[in-house]
Structure formats: C-alpha cells, structure tokens
From TrEMBL:
Name under which the protein is recorded: TetR/AcrR family transcriptional regulator
Keywords per UniProt: DNA-binding
Organism: Lentzea roselyniae
Annotated signal peptide: none
InterPro entries tied to this protein: Homeodomain-like_sf, HTH-type_TetR-like_transc_reg, HTH_TetR
Annotated region (Disordered), positions in chain: 1-23
Residue intervals of the HTH tetR-type domain: 20-80
Keyword DNA-binding applies: yes
A Pfam family that the UniProt record links to this protein: TetR_N
Amino acid sequence: MWPGTLGGVETRQRQADRTRETKRKLMEATVECLVERGWSGTTTTEVAERAGVSRGAQLHHFRTRGELVAAAVEHVGAESVEVLKRRAAITDKSTHAVVELIADFHASDLFTAALELWVAARTDPELREQVLELQARLGREVYGLALELLDADETKPGVKDAVQATLDLVRGLALANQLADDGKRRAHVVRYWARMLEEQL
C-alpha cells in the first residue's frame, strides 16, 4: 500500500459519514417543519436552522425547496415502511390487525408532511413531477407490503382491487384526522372494512 493511501481512505470515509449525517438532519428537520408550519412555512432557511446546518451545506445537497422536501418525504417514507415491517413482524396476522396497522401508519406525521407536499404540487408543475414519481414508488412499496401482510394472492379475482381500495380507504381516514382526532370513527371503520376484506381475500 502506498504511503498516505490509508489516511486518504479514512478521510473520504469521514466525509461520507458527515454527508450522511447532514442529509439525515435536513430530512428530519424538513418533515418536522412541514408538520408544524405547513408548506408555506417550510423554507430552506428555516430547515437549515432547525437542522443546525449551514445554509451553504444545505444548498450543496439540495438546490431548491422542492428537491429538499421531496427527498425528505421519500427518506422518511422509506424509514416508516421499515418501521411498519418491524411492527408487522410482532403483530397478530388477523385481517383486522393488519388493516389497523396500515391505517395507523397512514395517520402518522409522515402523512401530514406528504399531504403538505401533495397540495403544493397541485399548482407547481416542477414539484408535481417530483411528487408523482415519489408517490408511484412509495405506493408500489406499500401495496406490496400490504399484500405480504395480508397473505393475499393478487391473481385471485377481486383481490388486487380490494387491497388497493384498502389503501385508498386508510388514506381517506388519515385525511379526516388532520383537523381533529378521528380515532374513534377510524377504529369503527377499520373493523367494518376488515370484515369485508376478509371475505374478499
């Protein structure tokens, strides 16, 4: 090994670690800001301050607010799916328990952050392109996970539509929960829908 090579590798590793940590802080601060202040209050300056990151460092990784927010929602979305998988591993596999698990997942802060992004994308063509791509990726992942948790065979007639309808339903329930605690009604609807879904599966 040439002299200095090991030191160079260690330096690059430290830089890579710092980059990952900076991005993680920015992602978490962005989602927190979206939940607390909405799209209009989520500025790149506010996010950098919350993350304890310099404005220059923030701009180095994300040039625009749209890039930053889309990346943050995707990052937290991926983390949330992993949390959902871990919870599913220790949860009763009844249809009701699985639908309840998926409904709770959609009623999280991630949904609130994503909702702010979705609404802003309606009137922002550049942001809309990013959001459509993000929505498609996360949608496919959550759909696949729902199939797995429900042990559902999507080749069976009606199953694919029933699982997709489940995801559409829980998104609607999460939307209803934005202005006031809708937990009691959500629990009732989840129980009712789980019985219907079980018959279809």
